[in-house]
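Consider this pair:
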Amino acid sequence: MIRATMKRTPLHKEHLSAGAIMRDFAGWEMPVQYTSIIEEHMAVRTACGIFDVSHMGNIIIRGEDAANVMDRLTTNDVATASTGKCVYSHILDDEGHILDDVIATPIADGEFLVVPNAASTGKVMDWIRSHSSGQHLTNISDEIAIIAVQGPTAASVMAELTTTDLDGIGSFHGAFVMLDALKWTSPPSGPLLGDRLYSGNLGEGVPAFLSRTGYTGEVGFEIACENAAAVSVWRALLSQGAGHGLQPVGLGARDTLRLEKGFLLSGTDFDGTQTSLQTGPNWVVKYGHDFIGKKALERQRSAGGYARLVGMSMLGRGIPRHGYDVVSGTDTVGRITSGTMSPVLKKGIALGYVSHNFSEVGTSVRVRVRSALVDAEVVQTPFIRRGQN
């Protein structure tokens, strides 16, 4: 359902002209699919797809004590990361519950880019503000467009747009680059780009922050550029990427792609009542620094016995869906949070919380699919291991 009050990205008209089916997602009118979810999913796994993810948040925090603020607010080692290193982390409340999962990147000395989920941007902004003092905090979400380029041919597609040595940008790293194949008619003005790349000569290219990140598990890049350049970048990708099998991909396939890799979906796989110990991955929490929620996690870890998010693979016919019960014998031992039919594996896969004594890989369970109980097994994620960011 489309509501008149929904936000639109700078690429909204491009989606409509391409025949996309539009839906409400976290208050944004976003493309769900252009052709079919399966076709778009397989395009990313075999060639390349581009996604409009401009609904994601973009927060800049900078100042003399910005590193200490990030150290205090994030579970992972964000504060000590090298410039350009993108770090996946959780932001917790005092009880260890996940407020959001973010990617945080030091982009200069004393300056960090934090990317929260669309529905959580305001909450994360308020949380950072309430736990910082003297730092300059800027929400640039409405000024920046983000286009994701994902798939085995993504590097070849990006090489059509920039002369930057993409091999010099490591996995889960980012850098300011110039998209030389495009023309820019006004100097960049936003706080993310500013004058970092602008040399005073217009027409040299479109400035962008390019990171080797994504939500599909494939080789991928995410391009952050100013809104005014978004349509030019999108059209150039479609044109230059045609020979590399590129096609636009909606949020429907984005969801099935991320689930095959076992990536969490904010608001679905965690809803503010779970901790990092319950969701994992284990490496997201580094206990060597004093972050908000650390003591709560240590108490929970010591007590044990908590439900855990696990991957489940269906052994029988049936597609697991959000809210379905996980059963052992006559007891309900858990609940599905995300489920789908994997286009690659051709079987049902799911994430869900189960009681701790059913969380070991290889444990047999059943999923209640409507009125039937379908055999399933707890498995290690990711469900598929091809590709890398």
